[in-house]
Amino acid sequence: MELYQEILCHVFENEKIQVSFPELIHTDVMKIIELECYKALHKIKTILEDDSLTDSECFQQIEEIVCTFEELGSGGGNRHDFG
Q: Any idea what the Cα angle at residue 82 is, between residues 78 and 83, rounded to 5°?
């Protein structure tokens, strides 16, 4: 549920919205989340299928996947804190 909330918050913070929930339909929110998840999965699949990278460049592939999660508003956890 945490990833769901992170994605939803990220989507909303990038949109100009007028907050009103009198008739919020759960499926509309689910469609938003599903679309964002599909976009992320498509991007991850593209990264993983990139045959132009050698095995020694695997770290870069993982970095791109972590960045994809960050674009959704979800962090990479402590493993992505290199600073």
A: 110
Closest by Cα among 35, 46, 19 to 72: 35
Give the separation between CA 67 and CA 70, rounded to whole angstroms.
5
Report the domain count for the chain.
Answer: 1
- Residue 41 belongs to domain spanning: 2-80
- Label each residue of the chain as H, E or C: CHHHHHHHHHHHHCCCCCCCCCCCCHHHHHHHHHHHHHHHHHHHHHHHCCCCCCHHHHHHHHHHHHHHHHHCCCCCCHHHCCC
- Please tell me the pTM assigned to this model: 0.51
Region label for 77, one of left (φ > 0), alpha (ψ between -120 and 50) or beta (otherwise): left
Give the pLDDT confidence of 29-58 residue by residue, as tens digits. Answer: 788 888 888 988 888 888 777 778 777 777
